[in-house]
Amino acid sequence: MNGQCLRSIIFLLFPVMIYGQEMNNPPRLFDNSQPVDIILRTDLIRLLNQRDDDNDYQPATIIIEDIKGESKEFDTEVQARGNFRRDSANCDFPPIRLNFKKKDIVDTYFEGNEKIKIVSHCKTAISEFDQFVAREYVTYRIYGLLTPISFKVRSANIIYEDTENQLDPIERIGFLIEDIDHLASRNKMKEFEESLTLTDLEKNNAILLSLFQYMIGNTDWIINMSKNLKTFSDSAGFYAVPYDFDYTMLVGTDYSLGGGKPFLSAPVRLYKGLCFDMNEIYPVAEKIRSKRKEIFELISQEKMLDYNSRQHMKAFLSEFFNVIKSENRIKENILTDCM
User: Fold this and answer.
1) What are the strands, taking DSSP E only, across the chain?
2) In this model, does residue 222 exceed pLDDT 90?
3) Is the backbone of residue 222 left (phi > 0), alpha (psi -120 to 50) or beta?
4) Do 220 and 107 have their domain in common?
5) Do residues 240 and 196 touch, judged by C-beta distance below 8 A?
6) What are 6-63's pLDDT values in tens digits?
């Protein structure tokens, strides 16, 4: 068979090959960054009233429009989660967790994500909280631009419907966070649940984590207590992945709105990392600087953000990029505060 005939056959078979790949690899929830429309049906009064540490899952149904525009319905379970935001004195609507049975989502849109967190709006009657949700969503995506060892997120327009017909439907924005096991699987890692310190982490991961937390003005993390961090391992070492960014200067959540309690202390931009050698920290800083354009484009293009949120996030991050533009500035602003 000559080369021309072979090329002709491949050309004719190419659409079939692509179709076969799509059939073998159906779309998944976190394959796309476009907002997804969701209806979540459950006993809302029960969900909103059960805020204890040991609150049980309760039955729920989720209806989601997938990437192809097709509506899919799944049985699931739901429970309130979190610490500060689960307290009804702080949020009238808590963040929640979905729990699917693994066998029910094989070869479906949710495959690999048995337990999905949903970040909700906290205050139903106060529109400002939509912007806090949007800013936190973008913060997750910024870290995703810096490393694949990060939680994937998907923004959502969510309608919460009460199956007992005691409450009117609540329609607000939110976002979904991938399952821990899914993050581990796609990075060929395993979750590690024992205590670690920054010195235990793979060096570049420890530096990136420390610089990122400084970048977003987050002091609400403690590595050896796994506070707002999940840790993982592979053959090369240990890694920490940050999450829960509402208590950061970049997000700027004000829980005192509507009578809720503010945080005990205001978040600050403070470096909590180690005194890494400049030859180690500067290449990681350069990597972050190389993503500046993408980060600012992400902020500009995110439709959930309003003008004030975009300006706030860009201005705050611009200060950080000025700090890491030279070795002298890193020494003066970061390494003087290191441990």
Assistant:
1) 36-42, 58-65, 71-80, 96-99, 115-119, 153-162, 170-177, 190-191, 229-234, 237-242
2) no
3) beta
4) no
5) yes
6) 444 444 444 444 334 444 567 788 988 889 999 999 999 999 998 887 788 999 999 9
Instruction: Give the C-alpha separation, 98 to 82, whole Å.
Output: 13
Going from the C-alpha of 120 to that of each of 10, 52, 274, the distances in angstroms are 49, 18, 34
Q: Are residues 206 and 330 in the same domain?
A: yes
Q: Which two tokens stand for residue 197?
A: 């310190």
- Tell me, yes or no, whether 208 and 173 share the same domain: no
| 66 and 146 both lie in a single domain | yes
The model's confidence at residue 66, banded by pLDDT at 50, 70 and 90, is low
Measuring CA to CA, which residue among 45, 85, 80, 40 is closest to residue 60?
A: 40
- Of all helices (H) and strands (E), which one includes residue 16? helix 3-24
Number of compact structural domains in the chain: 2
Q: How many CA atoms lie within 13 A of 189 on its CB side?
A: 24
Q: What's the pLDDT tens digit per position in 175-221?
A: 999 999 999 999 999 999 998 999 999 999 999 999 999 999 999 89
Q: Tell me how long the chain is.
A: 339
206 lies in the same domain as 324? yes
Q: How many whole angstroms from its chain centre is CA 240?
A: 14
Same-domain check for residues 58 and 148 = yes
Q: Which residues pair with 174 in a beta bridge?
A: 156
Query: What's the CA gap between 136 and 302, in Å, rounded?
Result: 12
Domain CATH code at residue 237? 1.10.1070
Per-residue pLDDT tens digits for 104-133: 888 888 888 999 999 999 999 999 999 999
* Residue range(s) defining the domain that contains residue 267: 189-337
- pTM (2 decimals)? 0.90
